[in-house]
Amino acid sequence: MKKPIPKLEYSLRSESAARDLFVMGLLLVALLATSACGFRLRGGVEISPELSPVFVQARHGSPVGNEIIQQLQGSRIQLATGPRQARTIIRISNERRSSRIIAVDRGGKVLARELHYGLTFDAVTPDGKQLVPQQSLDLARSYEDPAVEVLGKQSERELIYTDMFGDAADRILTRLRATLRSGD
Q1: Structural Rg of the chain based on CA atoms
Q2: How sure is the predictor about 75, in pLDDT bands with cuts at 50, 70 and 90?
Q3: Which of 40, 71, 167, 173 is the most exposed place for a label (fewest CB within 10 A)?
Q4: Bridge partner list, 112
Q5: Beta bridge mates, 56
Q6: Range of the domain at 85
Q7: Based on the domain organization, do 24 and 69 belong to the same domain?
Q8: What percent of the chain has a predicted confidence (pLDDT) above 70?
């Protein structure tokens, strides 16, 4: 009676190994299928190489300007050292941050805030030809803001703004790519 039990355990182990192999095989097939269809992880910026080099014109220390530069550096796009050396100039202006209270408790304490970040941008050639017309971009995020965790909420606010800067850079580059594709 004790002999069938070890065989049963062995059988369960081999079924588990077979199931693991099957799952790994499915994952491999999915990986190969997504790579074959052109799927790529986010990170590379697809802008036509003939627009390279690109110059990002923004105020000194502009978080969105810096984010765009980082994204372009991670791609095949060359960066120009000045507007005269560029084929495309991305101009960022009128960057602004603000916040407003969106919820308070009965005692008047702030429970939630909404953060806003906005800017204006366009893209031109060095001779002034408009590639992307001037557009405004406005982003908003809300977060809970209980008064008991002041330091943590300041860090959270900065993290939210950092996320908004990345989102703004992505949207600017996406609009640039979409506008230039439709103009071809």
Answers
A1: 26
A2: confident
A3: 40
A4: 103, 144
A5: 90
A6: 49-182
A7: no
A8: 71
Tokens 């992505």 sit on residue:
170
Here the CATH number for the domain that contains residue 178 is 3.30.160.150
- The Cα–Cα gap between 136 and 92 comes to 10
- Burial label, 166 (beta-carbon count in 10 A; 0-12, 13-18, 19+): middle
Residue 28 lies in a domain: yes
**67 pLDDT more than 80:** yes
Is 44 part of a structural domain of the chain?
no
Residues 21 and 56 in one domain: no
Domain check: are 110 and 157 in the same one?
yes
The CB-based long-range contact list for 125-133 (8 Å cut-off, 24+ gap) reads: 125/87, 125/88, 125/89, 126/83, 126/84, 126/86, 126/87, 126/89, 131/51, 131/88, 131/176, 131/179, 131/180, 131/183, 132/175, 132/176, 132/179, 132/180, 133/179
Total domain count for the chain? Answer: 2
Q: Is residue 67 part of a domain?
A: yes
Return the SS3 of 3: coil
For residues 82 and 168, the answer to whether their CB atoms sit within 8 Å is no
The DSSP line for 111-167 is: EEEEEEEEEEEEEE-TT--EEEEEEEEEEEEEEE--TT-HHHHHHHHHHHHHHHHHH
Do the domain assignments include residue 75? Answer: yes
Mean predicted confidence (pLDDT) in 145-159: 73
